[in-house]
Amino acid sequence: MNKFYGTGVAIITPFQANGEIDFNALRNLIEYLIEGGVEYIVSLGTTGENVVLTAEEKKKVWAFTAEVNRGRIDLVAGIGGNNTADIIEQIKAFDTTGYAGILSASPSYNKPTQEGIYQHYKAIAAVAPLPIILYNVPGRTGSNVSAGTTVRLAHDFKNIIGIKEASGNFEQFNLIMRDKPEGFLLISGDDPVTLPMMALGAVGAITVIGNALPRQTSDMVRAALNNDYAAAQKAHFSLVEFTRLCFVEGSPAGVKTALSVLGVCGDTVRLPLVQVGSSTVDLFKKELAKITA
Questions:
Q1: Of residues 58, 164, 180, 256, which has the active-site annotation?
Q2: Which one of 98, 135, 211, 271 is most buried, by most CB atoms within 10 A?
Q3: pLDDT per position as a tens digit, 127-145
Q4: Which of 32, 118, 121, 135 is catalytic?
Q5: Tell me, what DSSP letter sits at residue 19?
Q6: Cα dihedral across residues 85, 149, 12, 168: positive or negative
Q7: What is the pLDDT of residues 255-274, one digit of tens each?
């Protein structure tokens, strides 16, 4: 399978009850994902609550993840933000040992123009020691990376090799697939629409729900890659309610609840996020009992 085809998991960062990083739980989760058959892990993407980790904590998580993985699957580091100069310095300082790529979310809050977004990624591409996957998530950033900007970046910079698209905009997906250079990857960043995106030509997903259900998620993605859409549809529909629950009270609080129910790790999040309510916990228990029966 080509690099970054299949299932990538935007891995959560487990915390102890006191808020400290739980490295033992992180080890367990990495092993759980590898055993679940995923193709790669994204460490400290937005699902990893990277905005509430210190620079030193990030270094420790990245190094620990590479140490535990031991080259068994590909690793991608999430390095993005709204201060271009700071992101450049973070990338220059990043220890690439064990990593195959960088996922970089577009700037949040600033609301740059499309030219500003282009120049932001141009500056990152000039210093990045690894291939870059763009990340468009307007629901969180407050601005959209247009199809035209994505395609322009894809044509202009050979080390920008794909985009994690979480806009939910199928017209945008159509334009990217029509106009992109050969080899540029469209990757689903939105679990509910991974399967229809793959029908358009997306090569897989960087998933949230895969933290808790790596086998089920990767089986669905692999079936779609093999053009077995009957099997992929069956798997997709079996995950619809679980996927809804993972986002009903915000991410990653939802999927951390699922991981807690499954006994993989705890469900602690750092403020300003909070744990989901007891009624949602009960719904997770019922749905996971059905899925894992």
A1: 164
A2: 211
A3: 999 999 999 999 999 999 9
A4: 135
A5: S
A6: positive
A7: 999 999 999 999 999 999 99
Q: How far apart are CA 213 and CA 203, in angstroms?
A: 19
Domain holding 101: CATH number? 3.20.20.70
Q: Does 51 fall in a domain? A: yes
Q: Which domain holds residue 16?
A: 6-237
Note whether residue 256 is domain-resident: no
pLDDT at 1 over 60: no
- Residue 158 annotated in active site: no
Which secondary structure element, helix H or strand E, spans residue 105, and what is its range? strand 101-105
Q: Is 99 a catalytic residue?
A: no
Helical residues (DSSP H) of the chain, grouped into ranges: 23-35, 55-69, 84-93, 114-127, 138-141, 147-156, 170-179, 194-200, 214-225, 229-238, 240-248, 253-261, 278-291
Q: For 103-131, write each residue's pLDDT tens digit.
A: 999 999 999 999 999 999 999 999 999 99
Q: Is 206 annotated as a binding residue?
A: yes
Predicted pLDDT of residue 2: 84
To the nearest whole number, what is the mean pLDDT of the chain? 97
